[in-house]
Please model this.
Amino acid sequence: MNKKLFSMKFEAYLRTLLSFILACQSSLFKFPTKNHKDYVQYNGTVPQLKPFTACVWLRPEEMGVGDSYGVMSYCTTGSEGCETLLISFSNYRTTVVIIGDRGSPYKFVSTTKVRQWTYACIAMSGSVSQYYINGSLYSTTKNRLNEDIPGRGVLIVGNVQGNGMIGSSPGEPMGGTHGFFGEMKGFQIWNKQLARMKIKDIFKSGGCSCDGDSVVNFNERNSVIKGNVTPFWNIPCP
Model:
């Protein structure tokens, strides 16, 4: 084997190994108050998504009646209301908004409890949307996702981007009371709809996927901390 080929294979091996190590570790973010200035921005590249799965551990400190708490907000330039993809929850439901579908978002009854860890996953394809709680399928609905979610947008967790108006700038958190208050860890996105047993296995492993196949996985190198969020890095999986 010539030196150039060996070097290319060795570099590919190191990249795979690093991806595996990072995937088998988790990052935790502590949001001390419900504040629109507190969030974490992903500094990596989000690929184009159509089928996708998003999973996260949540431990909210409070849930007021009617309040909305931003779990993740993904924006691309030109998206109406800066909501290419929005996942939020309140004391009675989890809401998913896809590509400005504000008028008729997907809504799932939520079982997220105050001061308790809950592992929540949303898996969407071109025809079916599935909502998982603690590794078990909780709800299924027909999907209206007929177009790809564009890549290379701005992704934040713990808040909602934009001001709800056309032309909102990605990366600008919305004012008001949409910030997350509590702890969040192990946030990951896959550009495929994970199978039911895969999600159950990830939950049993503590919410870590050690396959290195997720396309978004927050870590110290790709996370930009805003406001008073406290990060905890490199938490080993059980």
